[in-house]
Write a structure and sequence with these properties.
Strand content: 15-25%
Helix content: 25-40%
Radius of gyration: 23 Å
Structural class: alpha/beta
Number of strands: 19
Bound molecules: flavin-adenine dinucleotide
Number of helices: 17
Oligomer: single chain
Shape: globular
Distance between the termini: 63 Å
């Protein structure tokens, strides 16, 4: 017991606990204060909110802005756009709710000091595309974090939340969360009347293209470790669309963004022989998905599909034609600044590979799959919708409340509503914050009750990897492989290999089928058993151990959903080889799952898709 008694247990009481201080979490913290002037609002973050989350490095564009002040777009238009991109499967109520409020969020960002580019002729925000506006966004995250810091009663940085805590007097009600300080090792127990999970998406669940040298380089933030999914899953919250993983076409080896190149620089792609390859695949795509290929803009997954087929046909590599655009000095500047403001690594990769985009058309490739609810796909928790426009089947409580009472979410955490991006995630945090305040006020003096036995047990479980390592280390004299413990990196590589080979990663050309998925689940089950033997040599590795736990549970959920949906709705994201076509008759629906942590079993069901916008 010596190992554990050294660690203090710190108890923190709050009205609203926000887990994750990224875009959604900062929005939730900010808005909770606006509506709950006298409430205790606590934000807990595993890094430091100043530079945490997917926006840590900065962005060059805000991808969700309507421009209603200039009549550029209406919220309904955005719903149609997101619906089109995801072959009809979006929660239109949630998407509409974000779209109608997102402009005010962007105006706040500007007021707080974010430099937004303006069109010199019209004075309006400089558009990159129909929905995107261009920013000088290297400091985007610190600017947003400052607003959250000022709004919060307390921000606890460097605390990794490992578990949610449930109310001992009322089943299915959340009562707080537990975790540990990644710097001093203290154990934290947060009691809260409402909890908002905004802990980002999931990278590194599928094997990345960069392994060995370069490992860690992924398109989505490498520290997005699936906590936003695992925390609610573990307490029985329903999840939706977890099969809807995303694959991105990006500049090769650096994952540099292509949006500004396509939209602003008007660059285009061609195969190794200088041909426009997309029309070649039109008929075969139509065969798979029907009329969806005729929609405008063509859904991203279908464009990925054409690229993948062209490479399989032996006419790769696919290149972005930059040589023409880069002759224009303005476009050349934009092309480079685009990387410097958000993915500086791509500029370094090009320099190291002698690629001057003025002279050489750089290669594109498709990424490994990621899981997220805020970008162009919509995995996440099944949430109650807004009172004024959600169909009754989508309403069981407060806006953005999951199927667990008092548990809310925002950003990547909430499923069904894609294309929120940074501004929409912050907006959804605001929506969740407002609803959580209402929930807390309605609770009145009632306090959720924590079970001391539960958090004391958790304390032992949370630090177990340190003990496993300290004891097991004596059995080996050199190296890192031990008969009695598994290091987090080894567990991660095993997970990535299973997901890659069985659930449709890059090594399997994004293809899977029922036998593969079934075997994948068996192997994930064995990996789960071994997680009890994770060994952590220090607090940093302890964090890695818990990130792995979260990734494995989220991966199991992804696999269950992929098995359940017996169609290929998004070719280019993944393929069910045994059900290669889109099937609107049987699968024009959401998939829902619920995990029972006592039995380890998953229940799957379908939920209807309602189109509230014509
Ligand atoms: C490469 C890339 C490019 C992008 N480009 C654009 C763009 O051009 N324009 C645009 O608008 N959007 C863009 N996005 C999307 C945008 O960044 C996301 O939509 C947004 O950040 C999602 O917000 P979130 O709050 O859900 O997650 P995040 O902002 O990632 O925040 C999650 C937070 O939770 C914390 N956390 C995670 N687990 C735990 C835990 N267990 N305990 C405590 N804290 C935890 C994390 O450290 C992080 O701070 C891009 C994203 C990426 C990765």
């Amino acid at each position: 017991m010596g190992l554990f008694t050294r660690r203090k247990t710190v108890m923190v009481d709050s009205d609203i606990l926000v887990i994750g201080g990224g875009m959604g979490g900062c929005g939730a913290t900010y808005e909770s204060r606006y509506w709950g002037r006298n409430l205790k609002i606590v934000c807990v973050e595993k890094a430091n909110i100043e530079r945490s989350g997917a926006v840590a490095q900065g962005l060059y564009a805000i991808n969700c802005y309507m421009g209603m002040q200039w009549n550029e777009n209406r919220p309904e238009d955005h719903v149609r756009y997101a619906r089109n991109y995801l072959m009809c499967l979006v929660r239109e109520d949630l998407g509409y709710d974000i779209a109608r409020h997102v402009d005010s969020t962007v105006h706040k960002f500007e007021e707080w000091g974010l430099p937004i580019m303006r069109d010199p002729e019209t004075g309006r925000y400089q558009r990159e595309g129909k929905w995107q506006i261009m920013i000088h966004g290297e400091s985007y995250k610190p600017i947003v974090a400052e607003a959250a810091r000022k709004a919060a009663t307390e921000v606890y940085n460097r605390i990794m939340v490992t578990h949610l805590l449930m109310d001992k007097t009322r089943p299915n009600r959340v009562a707080g969360a537990a975790g540990f300080n990644v710097r001093n090792g203290n154990f934290y127990v947060f009691r809260a009347k409402a909890v908002i999970v905004a802990a980002g998406g999931a990278s590194h669940i599928f094997k990345p293209r960069a392994v060995g040298e370069g490992m860690g380089r992924t398109w989505y933030a490498p520290w997005s470790s699936a906590s936003a999914y695992a925390l609610p899953i573990l307490v029985g919250a329903k999840m939706t669309q977890m099969e809807n993983r995303i694959v991105l076409t990006r500049f090769k080896d650096g994952y540099g963004p292509v949006g500004a190149y396509f939209l602003h620089l008007k660059t285009y792609t061609q195969n190794a022989y200088g041909q426009d390859y997309e029309p070649t695949w039109y008929e075969s795509i139509k065969e798979r998905v029907g009329d969806y290929v005729e929609r405008h803009p063509v859904p991203t997954c279908l464009r990925n599909h054409a690229l993948l087929e062209e490479v399989k046909a032996g006419r790769g590599p696919i290149r972005m034609v930059t040589k023409e655009a880069f002759k224009d000095p303005h476009k050349e500047t934009v092309g480079w600044e685009n990387f410097l403001g958000m993915t500086i690594g791509q500029a370094v990769v090009w320099a190291s590979q002698n690629i001057d985009p003025k002279e050489i058309n750089p290669e594109l490739t498709t990424s490994e799959p990621y899981v997220m609810g805020s970008h162009a796909t919509c995995s996440g928790a099944w949430a109650s919708g807004p009172e004024d426009c959600a169909p009754s089947e989508y309403q069981w409580g407060y806006n953005r409340m999951m199927t667990v009472e008092g548990l809310f979410g925002a950003g990547d955490a909430i499923g069904g509503s894609a294309h929120k991006f940074s501004s929409g995630s912050f907006t959804e945090g605001r929506i969740a914050g407002k609803a959580a305040v209402k929930y807390v006020k309605d609770l009145g003096a009632e306090q959720p009750q924590l079970s001391e036995a539960e958090y004391e047990d958790l304390k032992k479980i949370v630090y177990k990897p340190l003990e496993n390592y300290e004891v097991g280390r004596n059995e080996i004299v050199a190296g890192t492989v031990s008969p009695s413990y598994l290091l987090p990196i080894h567990g991660l590589q095993r997970l990535e290999k299973i997901m890659d080979e069985y659930v449709g990663g890059i090594g399997a050309h994004y293809t899977t089928n029922e036998p593969l998925l079934t075997r994948g689940l068996e192997l994930l089950g064995m990996l789960k058993e071994d997680l009890a033997y994770l060994g952590a040599e220090d607090l940093h590795q302890l964090q890695r151990a818990w990130e792995l736990q979260h990734r494995v549970l989220a991966s199991e959920c992804v696999t269950q959903h992929t098995l359940f949906r017996t169609e290929t709705r998004w070719p280019g994201y993944y393929y069910r080889a045994d059900h290669p076509k889109l099937d609107d008759k049987d699968w024009h629906c959401f998939t829902l799952s619920r995990y029972d942590r006592d039995s380890g079993k998953w229940e799957m069901e379908k939920a209807p898709v309602y189109h509230i916008v014509d």
